[in-house]
Batch of 3 targets.
Target 1
Amino acid sequence: MRTTEPPKSVEPRPERLATTVDASKFAIASKRLTTWETIANNGALRKLAILLVLALIWELYARWLNNQLLVPTFSATVQAFAAAVISGELPLRVWLSIKVLLVGYGAGVLIAAVLTALATTTRLGSDLLETLTAMFNPLPAIALLPLALIWFGLTPLSLSFVLIHSVLWPVALNTHSGFVSVSPTMRMVGKNYGLRGMRYVALILIPAAFPSILTGLKIGWAFAWRTLIAAELVFGVQSGSGGLGWFIVTNKNILDIPNVFAALFTVIIIGLLVENVIFRTIETRTIRRWGMATS
């Protein structure tokens, strides 16, 4: 026979005791950042420190080598750069290169936008883009320079033609890749709102795929910039009135190596400014503001 034990007495739950604490007794612990922590938390200062270290290495190596015809010192390069800027020759060469670059880059981006829009909205356009990129993307842009010279002569059109080729395919490929990766949910939302054709591309696909588009624009810029300098190294435009590449060649011919390095230094400065000012500003005001990037 099973016996049941009497239930044990349960201790009553003590009531929660709430006490009021003076707010003045609370404090937020704060600590002033050290100089190293301030530099480590600032991206611009970190990059500046890297540039200063590289400049110091350049200066020390050039002084150790002690041969201005091979590697001039960083200080001699800066002096040549300042002299070329004051004389007005270097800004003129930079402006001539930038004009040609803007024309070729803008035309390449425009053609890439048209091809990508067609590839996104029609099957024929998709097949066309895939075929053209498979044919022409592996072809180096500088390899078209002899044909450009035959077709357009020693004119800026020759350089623009080569630049269009260097910009068109990376921008088109990255843009189309971004469009393809847009989620089906966003596509369905756009179609439910009745968006079709170019309005669908402009209002749905471009904002969603903008990180890939911006990457394509960066790659296209880099390809165009180095293709332009390489093409100008081969020939000047209109009897020696070329840009930075021609400036490099003419100073190499007279063995003015500090001026050659000053021109290369200018190419680097322009690249840093475009990447860290123009593209960084676009990225901050678009994909970072939209929450598409965290770093």
Note: The chain has a mean pLDDT of 81.
Target 2
Amino acid sequence: MSTSLREGKPQLAGRPDRELRLRMFRLQVELRYFEKRAYDLFLQNLVKGTSHLSLGQEAIAAAFGVAMRSDDYTYATYRGHAHTLARGVPMGPVLAELLGRENGLMAGKGGSMHLTSVEHGVMGSYAIIGAHLPIACGSAWSAQYLGTGQVSVGFFGDGTTNIGAFHEALNFAKIWTLPVVFVCENNLYMEYTRTSEITAVEHPAADRASAYGLPSIIVDGNDPDAMYEVASTSLQLAREGGGPSLIEAKTYRHGGHSRADPGKYRPDAEVAEWLARDPLPMYRARLIADGVAESELAGVEADVGLAVEAATEFAKAGAVPGEDLLLKDVWANGGASWRN
């Protein structure tokens, strides 16, 4: 197993079966193809503003997307496309949202960094670093109070571990034994700065876990099977009243911090090493070695390719939002006239 549980060793919930592994493969392909298309549309000046892609980090979102219950809660950062899609939000409205179109997930008003779909348990993507973690505690607290068995999962980058809200959320989650899972997607860089240069510990999340009475969990974030084991175990622990978990998933983004960043600050040898550990070709080869027909996987890839094309056409066909939408969803009563 690619997981290191360095303090304590919770009972693992088990490896994914063939059906779950194929679902994780399909999800990874969907996330990769979608974000490649988003990048292409950005270069065509159709995606307005910037965007933050998860190319190379798909295994984390896919594993949790498969392991989570449909009524669980997801809280993501501005790098949230993958986590939104992994919860079952259709590609068309998400891509239309990136294009700022009226048929977008949020009528074109949220854009790339604020994807939200309460219907699918996606409780928002947050551009303020760490701001979503205390909020994840809030929904976990409500689930605990109501006895629903729901779990909140908060995804964040390694840079967030130096933010006060990260520590406040961990402390609150622990003392209240909240059903929440904190997932650090450690891609080694906090925007343009290597995290190790400004962080006192080697493992920014795992090495802080003991301060809150939690096990130190490090997992290969590019290994979907290892991610699934840790995801299902932590979710089960939270659901059964065992409290929070803090997971550090080691991964790497293939590109820069955002589409405006060429990522030239990263050593070429480092980039090459991590590209060789790309989760998609690795997992594809593993499935074939385990007896899945290559033609079946090729069929999945072809099917996803067609779905991305359909989503692109849907997004492009959307109208640009008009002035009538400016004040929609801004005021509690639907308009601003009462304030004037």
Note: The longest helix spans residues 18-43.
Target 3
Amino acid sequence: MASTNPLAALFKRSPFKAMQEHMRCSVECARLVTPLYEALIAGNQDEVEVIKEKIFEAEDRADQIKNKLRANLPRSLFMPVDRRDLLEVLQMQDSIADTAQDIAGLLVERPMEVPEPMKKPLMLLTARCIDACEQSAKVIEELDELLEMGFRGREATQVEAMVDELSRIEDDADKLELQLTRILFKHEGEINPISVMMWYRLIEWTGDLADYSKKVGNRLRLLIAR
């Protein structure tokens, strides 16, 4: 009787399909940070908790795929890529999901208010960080073609251009993160000191979504360069 386990079906086709599916789950977690912050700004803590549960569910799916992939990835792939390198890419992908989970968890454990001067800059930063996640997902979707071409040729050139664009997006996110941090410190006298520390952490974690996305792209660039 054929297996009905969707994870088993993924690995039957290709471990690289599983990596792509893991990335989709990770980016799903990141996307939900936008409505999470929107609910926070609106003062809707009930909705914050609903979205938190969605993030945790997507992160759990990502973990299931990650653990299955680690357990089943062959020791010898007979391909122009080292198993350890693929596992490093997987770890960077997983960090995206974990970071989104951290943001959601903190906002439920310690309900926060968004100071008025931070509202628009926070959403601008979040949007650009999600752009980075989306771009890194596009890079990972090219993994099959990269492997087929031996990480060489036109496909490799195309992926390198995609990684360059990812770096530009992450640079934008870095600038927005710095601007938001400056706004936080400018108004820190108006905010509870513990909230200032929590917001500094949240801003940093939000920026990390773009940082880990860039690391996914950089790791694939190294594979192409070898």
Note: The CA atoms of residues 43 and 113 lie 7 Å apart.
